Amino acid sequence: MSEHFEFTSENKERVKQFVGRYPEGRQQSAVMPLLDLAQRQNGGWLPEGAVEAIAEILQMPPIRVLEVATFYSMYKLKPVGRRLVNVCTTTPCWLRGSEQIVTACEQALGIKLGETTPDGEFTLGEVECLGACVNAPVVQIADDYFEDLDAASIARVIEALKRGETPPPGSQTGRQSSAPEGGPQVLTGAVKAPKKKAPPKEVAPAGKKAKAPPEEDAPAGEQAKAPPEEDAPAGEQAEAPPEEDVPAGKKAKAPPEEDAPAGDQAKAPPEEDAPAGEQAEAPPEEDVPSGKK
Predict the structure, then answer these.
(1) Full-model pTM
(2) Residue of 36, 32, 30 whose CA lies nearest to 58
């Protein structure tokens, strides 16, 4: 029979808070925070009685709780030291020298991976990916991360812990968070973008329309667009130019031809093709007033 385990009165209130985060029928989702709470209460590891107690609280089979506890490396099923030193040896940390970190920890503690010091103070462990790859190599001690390590810096951290001191966690090279090594290189001062002022708008006098902006020359090969037509005043319709009446028996005069620019010859209108078998008729000649050619 396993050893009996029961949460303290303070932790029982925390259990209610964790379980209350999930809707009715989904209380089993609280299994991970309850395992962590039991482990902290029991000195860093989970006895079999804790697994059974959590299964009873969440109304789930004990084997389901044990499946979670054995899957994640943060849960320990055997006693460990008061300070658990976890060295990350996954690829990013390995590329940055995690093997040297493991060796330095073994020398400073006098133990190998998976062992605990005789005084029960330290346990040295190996873990897969602590999620701080950009600051590799990384070591987790209790709840603190020590980053940007080398053999000398991790040895200093362990010696400080042995003396009962609290070494500062985070980067051991002094860089800010995950910023590039050597500090910021660009945008080191305040940057202010100049504000562009919009051109003033011209206000047309009452009863007059604002003048249209000057037309821009059309790009080569394109035709300039005609200016927009002006709208007729409200209630009135734009009048078309009056047509001249042509007396009976006379032809309407064609509009005067525009002079072609100097050096150019006016182009004749295109001739229409006569139907097959017929000859195109010449256009009728206009009467020339007497005295004119």
Answers:
(1) 0.60
(2) 30
